[in-house]
Design goal:
By secondary structure, this protein is α+β, with helices and mostly antiparallel strands. It folds into 2 domains: about 90-150 and about 310-320 and about 330-480, 3-Layer(aba) Sandwich (Beta-lactamase); about 155-300, no CATH class. About 30% of the residues lie in helices and about 15% in strands. It contains 11 helices and 10 strands. A 5-stranded antiparallel β-sheet has the order 2-1-10-9-8, sandwiched between helices. Strands 6-5-4-3-7 form a 5-stranded mixed β-sheet, covered by helices on one side. α2 runs antiparallel to α11 (about 465-480) and α6 packs across α10 (about 390-405).
């Protein structure tokens, strides 16, 4: 099981100076230093002048000095990628990749390098072959979610009045990020709503107290575990049963990515709500919210665009499945595994994104029954990364690009590209990872040394351990960064 989902969803924050915020802070600090010199001189000057007998005494006035120039305020901007960078030649690119792609640990390899500006494939290796993608399948779900859902919308969790006096119903709205942690403590989900806020709202409108908590999970349909999922994935910390309400993605420890999960996340959430409301958690049961029930409390998730970002950067399986269900609901499909996947595929097709040969059975990529080709993933990323595109499709997909982990800097790539033949890609490669047993994949974008934006997708299926395959895939992407293969 060590290889079941090894991208590990590590979420370290890169050093501040590498970010736009870091450069702003550096500029502010520099300005403070400059200003500080002036202030220091003003504080020292009277004492120094007094030493020469010029203060409070008769005599000639000191010779005036030229006032210092006004402080310089730096103008900080992010430079866009130029549109005149040379297009890599197919021969040059093939030569640059010939060594890395020949690694014997890669097994069956499906790969493609695509130039989104020119709309052409520059390098391909068995690009149409359908292989198990692992978590790069989350790109499919994320793309559909950004196209079908309002980016600013939020998922709601409600508590409503039950039929009986003293009974309330916890109603799942599809948000798995609701956190049991108190305010001031961050879970694995940035900006998560708090169970304590629900408790405060309910107490304020139930002066007689709460005696029982029911939980309504009717928002979803069908099985709670996906096709091909292993039951041990739940206690192993990779996923929880997919229900429309849970605390911290069903984790036993809200701050740990791969903490063991509960097999009954909805009942566990209702039981914790009961404890905090002073009700007996042993009386918690499944139930339905009465029609037009009075809302006693409501909390909302982070916006959809941020949920997509978290699902990709941390490779969160539960959150990806929740987003797939939201696509189903938004398009009128059944919010089940089959309904959600059908809805995801239709949304992509209706938006002109051809990921030919796509066969997925879940929204997270956890199942080994999924099949995707490198050409399909490259087409999806190209739709999001086409520079200068003004069409609505590309603009709606932009958050997908910014959500990709940064090599050596964030998300599931934070501990990769740190040394050796992959170091050239550090800070330049942005990609989604995928890892299952016998499955490794990498799909994303990179700007080569000529300044050309390239899209890539590499899928490897074979017996070699992930500890060997992942560096081999990283080396291919790093070679793209170092290419400088443009025609002159």
């Amino acid at each position: 099981m060590a290889q079941r989902h090894q991208e590990a969803q590590i979420g370290r924050t890169p050093h501040l100076p590498r970010t736009r915020a870091g450069r702003v802070l550096a500029g502010v600090l520099a300005l403070m230093v400059i200003s500080g010199i002036g202030v220091g001189a003003a504080l020292v000057a009277p004492a120094a002048l007094d030493g020469f007998g010029w203060l409070g005494r008769s005599g000639p006035a000191p010779i005036p000095t030229t006032p210092p120039p006004a402080p310089i305020t730096p103008t900080l901007r992010l430079r866009p990628i130029g549109g005149d960078a040379p297009l890599p030649t197919t021969g040059g690119l093939a030569a640059a990749l010939s060594g890395p792609v020949a690694s014997p640990v890669l097994g069956q390899l499906s790969g493609q390098v695509f130039d989104p500006a020119a709309g052409v494939a520059l390098w391909s290796r068995d690009e149409g072959r359908q292989l198990v993608p692992g978590s790069t399948a989350k790109l499919v779900t994320a793309c559909a979610a950004l196209l079908a859902l309002d980016h600013d919308s939020r998922l709601e969790t409600q508590v409503v009045a039950g039929d009986a006096t003293g009974t309330v119903v916890l109603v799942g709205g599809g948000d798995p990020t609701l956190s049991a942690l108190p305010a001031g403590q961050e879970s694995v989900y940035p900006g998560a709503p708090r169970l304590d806020d629900l408790v405060t709202q309910v107490r304020a409108v139930t002066p007689g107290g709460v005696r029982q908590v029911l939980v309504d999970v009717d928002r979803y349909a069908g099985d709670a575990l996906g096709p091909g999922w292993l039951p041990v994935d739940v206690p192993g910390g990779f996923v929880a049963p997919i229900v429309p309400v849970m605390l911290d993605g069903g984790r036993a420890v809200p701050t740990e990515e791969n903490a063991p999960r509960t097999s009954t996340p909805a009942l566990a959430a209702a039981a914790e709500l009961a404890r905090r409301l002073g009700a007996d958690p042993a009386t918690v049961a499944a139930g339905k919210a009465p029609p037009n029930a009075k809302v006693l409390g409501v909390v909302r998730s982070a916006p959809v665009r941020e949920l997509v970002g978290t699902a990709l950067s941390r490779s969160d399986n539960v959150l990806a499945e929740a987003l797939a269900r939201q696509v189903a609901i938004a398009t009128g499909a059944e919010p089940s595994f089959a309904g959600a996947i059908g809805a995801v595929h239709r949304v992509l097709s209706e938006n002109g994104i051809d990921i030919g040969g796509l066969h997925t059975v879940d929204g997270s990529g956890l199942s080994n029954q999924n099949r995707v080709s490198a050409a399909g993933l490259a087409a999806l990323l190209a739709a999001a990364a086409t520079p200068g595109a003004a069409d609505d499709r590309s603009s709606r997909l932009r958050p997908l690009v910014s959500a990709l982990p940064v090599a050596g800097g964030s998300g599931t790539l934070v501990e990769r590209y740190l040394a050796g033949p992959t170091a050239a890609g550090r800070g330049h490669v942005r990609a989604k990872t995928g890892t299952l047993e016998g499955v490794n994949s990498l799909a994303g974008i990179v700007v080569d040394t000529d300044g050309r934006l390239l899209v890539f997708a590499f899928l490897s299926n074979g017996p070699s351990p992930s500890s060997e395959v992942r560096p081999a895939l990283d080396a291919i992407a790093a070679a793209l960064r170092s290419c400088g293969c443009g025609g002159r």
